[in-house]
From TrEMBL:
Topology in the lipid bilayer: Multi-pass membrane protein
One Pfam match: Na_H_antiporter
Main location: membrane
Gene: nhaC
This protein's UniProt keywords: Antiport, Cell membrane, Membrane, Transmembrane, Transmembrane helix, Transport
Lineage, opening ranks: Bacteria, Pseudomonadati, Pseudomonadota, Gammaproteobacteria, Enterobacterales
GO MF assignments: antiporter activity
Record domain Na+/H+ antiporter NhaC-like C-terminal: where: 1-272
Name of protein: Sodium/proton antiporter
InterPro entries linked: Na/H_Antiport_NhaC-like_C, NhaC_Na-H+_Antiporter
Subcellular location: Cell membrane
Tagged with keyword RNA-binding: no
Amino acid sequence: MYTTLPSFVLAATVYLIAGHSSVVGTVATPQRVTDIIIGLESLYHFNLLLILPPVLVLWGAVTKRPVIPVMLAACVLAIGLAVVMQGFSLKQGLNALMDGFNLSMFAERGHDISGVIADVPRLLNRGGMFSMMSTILLVLCAFSFAGALTLTGALTVIINRLLKVVRTTGQLIAATVGTTILVTGATSDGKLALLIPAELYKDAYRRMGLDNTNLSRTIEDAGTVIEPLIPWTAAGVYMATTLGVNTLDLLPWAVQCYAAVFFALIYGFTGFGIARVTPEAQQQEMPNETA
């Protein structure tokens, strides 16, 4: 909460100011939003049952169900709702699943789409399994590179050299941040960025009398939330593909993602929000490690 909550407040403030500025207001005016809503209402029959697929996915995430069966069940449910509620054919539903949805599917049903504004097709014409093939290929290549770096131990050598010059808490936090981002960018895998720095830095944090919660929080601040901002990572490719926005265009507005890093550095050099281990606890750990 020391880094996440301030980052959230800062991001909300930036979005509030940007949302009321004239520059951003010319891009998405209230009239344009109204036109998009009217266009969508002319195409779809909205009702509460349509939220069942995302509710199913959220339920699976909360209850920690297997990902693939839950996602497939949500796809089947969505196709069923499209056939029953929206009047699409089963063939159109399966085509949307594989090739992505296209507004021309309404024209096939005899629906007049000539009056729909251009923003609606840009919003709807996307998706499908085949659209993710380039993402999957990039992820496979990235994982191959990550495997080579891990087996050769190149990252371990770099990090061990870095630890030799670390003397203060602020330097240790900064080194952890830099290492986590480096591992994320080099391996394109956020999971390795959580595991490798944690294993290599845990002794350094213990020697400085710092609680492991500091290490965990710093890795989270520089790993999980930074990964979507690196274009060639799995999360970065997924975000760009899903949102239809280039990563570099998204970067300036992902305030909460990179703000946490700055707060982590500030806390490291000022000592605010840094949990320390008591001498008694350190003495208790020493016999356990020896045993």
